[in-house]
From TrEMBL:
This is Restriction endonuclease. InterPro entries: BamHI/BglII/BstY, BglII-like, Restrct_endonuc-II-like. GO terms for molecular function: DNA binding; magnesium ion binding; type II site-specific deoxyribonuclease activity. SUPFAM superfamilies: Restriction endonuclease-like. It comes from Phaeocystidibacter luteus. One of its GO terms (biological process) is DNA restriction-modification system.
Length: 209
């Protein structure tokens, strides 16, 4: 899978040094292992028994493949930021964490871009609430504008380009180095949405070459 990188607070340079280098290799290796054919197979597997269960975008397939790859390298999925039981659940949870790095896979609404950027900061900074994890650097994996269009994603999701726009005004509060990874669109296919029912869409694979 092809992707673009944007480094905030020299994140990419920092990740080339120990102890981050091995974890960076694992992240990149997982993304590199997701070919177009693997992505098609995973996406279509959700609708094998019932086409109505076919997702309308590639988000579920990508999430699942990233999770399988990272967990295989020993990353903790759905890692809590805080120990305090008042701050549990999805709001206070990282998608993945290992050692000094926290990861968010962000295919959600653009209105939560700022919160997605703040999660690695909360995981890295000391806090008045007792911490469950302490990292030093954040990685945000998101879709580029082209991936949003060709991958069948909702028009309101936050894109790689939009995440970059948020970095400047939030620069004074984003004290943690953050590496943005923008996933590029597939090369041999795209997702074409079909309306099955009044409120039900599915995404079928359309080969483009």
């Amino acid at each position: 899978m092809k992707y673009s990188l944007h480094s905030f607070r020299f994140a990419e340079n920092i990740m080339m040094e120990q102890p981050f280098k091995i974890q960076l290799f694992e992240i990149i290796n997982v993304l590199d292992s997701i070919t177009d054919d693997i992505l098609i197979e995973k996406h279509e597997s959700f609708g094998l028994d019932d086409e109505e269960k076919l997702p309308k975008s590639l988000s579920r397939a990508i999430n699942q493949l990233i999770k399988e790859g990272l967990v295989g390298y020993g990353w903790n999925a759905e890692s809590a930021i805080f120990q305090d039981t008042n701050y549990q659940g999805d709001t206070w949870r990282l998608d993945f964490a290992k050692g000094d790095i926290s990861i968010e896979v962000a295919f959600n609404h653009a209105s939560v871009i700022a919160w997605n950027l703040m999660k690695p900061v909360l995981a890295s900074e000391l806090n008045h609430v007792e911490k469950a994890i302490q990292t030093q650097l954040g990685v945000i994996i998101c879709a580029t504008q082209e991936m949003k269009e060709k991958g069948g994603f909702d028009s309101a999701i936050g894109t790689y380009e939009k995440f970059q726009d948020y970095l400047k005004p939030l620069g004074s509060v984003l004290t943690t180095p953050i590496l943005l990874i923008g996933l590029e669109a597939p090369e041999i296919f795209q997702i074409e949405q079909h309306q099955l029912k009044p409120r039900k869409k599915i995404g079928r694979v359309l080969y483009t070459r």
